[in-house]
Amino acid sequence: xxxxxxxxxxxxxxxxxxxxxxxxxxxxxxxxxxxxxxxxxxxxxxxxxxxxxxxxxxxxxxxxxxxxxxxxxxxxxxxxxxxxxxxxxxxxxxxxxxxxxxxxxxxxxxxxxxxxxxxxxxxxxxxxxxxxxxxxxxxxxxxxxxxxxxxxxxxxxxxxxxxxxxxxxxxxxxxxxxxxxxxxxxxxxxxxxxxxxxxxxxxxxxxxxxxxxxxxxxxxxxxxxxxxxxxxxxxxxxxxxxxxxxxxxxxxxxxxxxxxxxxxxxxxxxxxxxxxxxxxxxxxxxxxxxxxxxxxxxxxxxxxxxxxxxxxxxxxxxxxxxxxxxxxxxxxxxxxxxxxxxxxxxxxxxxxxxxxxxxxxxxxxxxxxxxxxxxxxxxxxxxxxxxxxxxxxxxxxxxxxxxxxxxxxxxxxxxxxxxxxxxxxxxxxxxxxxxxxxxxxxxxxxxxxxxxxxxxxxxxxxxxxxxxxxxxxxxxxxxxxxxxxxxxxxxxxxxxxxxxxxxxx
Length: 505
Known about the structure:
505 residues; alpha/beta; GMP Synthetase, Chain A, domain 3; 9-stranded mixed sheet; 7-stranded antiparallel sheet; 15 helices; 28% strand; globular
């Protein structure tokens, strides 16, 4: 039998539709309920549903009064504060297209994005790096907009463009992923398929406000359900998270594997009486880390698999836990296959994990890049670039990347982008970059280079600091007399880890 798992048709998205209106649909029925608590060491800053909706719709009015129009693209250069989701949803409420970006991006990186997108305006925190743009709306102006009368929800075709996110591509150039308003409708398939989320839950996400994982799992999904989102305030140290979870009665905790890894390091016991379970996504969860969490808390940890182009669509859940080392199975409403060169492969064989083109959560395409979008399709299947194998019951095991993409703390990074940044250094003649497992469940980006003499690592780190976001920067540099290459001179990037291990013995 072919490796195709059809978990029923997705629920049809209503029309007309607006993503922000859907997210805040519970505000009218329970206006005084706490939608968001920003958790500090001793206190919390609370936002009720009515206050949150007023801020979002007031921001929408302010953007319209500023001369912006539905369909305008807005680049977001905001920090790790509540301003980020309010501006994001405010723009969508008024029919504009926000582009959330990491605050870690450098000025040259944002210059490339501005040149590609030609945004109508930049929503800007002055403390966040950004290239010049003739129209910038600063943080003070955005905050002042919240007092405006509420904008009307910009309703329309659920398939129209709602927002754009950036992901690194195998070409070394970050790709703009265009998503429709219906993308939020598709996320309801995670509610039972991963979260087991209810309106009574208090979901704490350990990520920053301006990370798309936090924006979806930590904020918009709880709000859509009428639950309470808990976000630690900026600067919270990981060691403080267990105390915050206990003090604020978190019932679900979500984080990337790296977060779990750091505060479970001592194999300690965590007393979290209100916690039902944990959620994990962003990179592959190891069996050892899952076991360490269960020993520490007595609770299960449920993993999900997805990507910028389709969020999460394979997961384990309390009602359908993963078997062994498997990721889980496709959520209800998803159609997933394991695909080889000739199409879906037989059950049990490895191939590329793929999702059907009709999935409501799948991107509209790469913005202004139809050829790249077409290259990701094989017939009716969108190819993720990740390898997997499917069992007879639909459980899918992850088998690694089908290309050279790296994973840096939950962010996918193209080695070509890092290599391009280092190639201009006057002391480097050739460079190859990959990620290396330096200890169990911990990977770092390492740059291997050739040149007349070994270079000072501090100087190299300083050189890339202005060219790459922090999460893209190598953590180590290895000088070699020659880089491994094939007979035709092509860099053998997958041979590089052996050189690092030989040096560190």
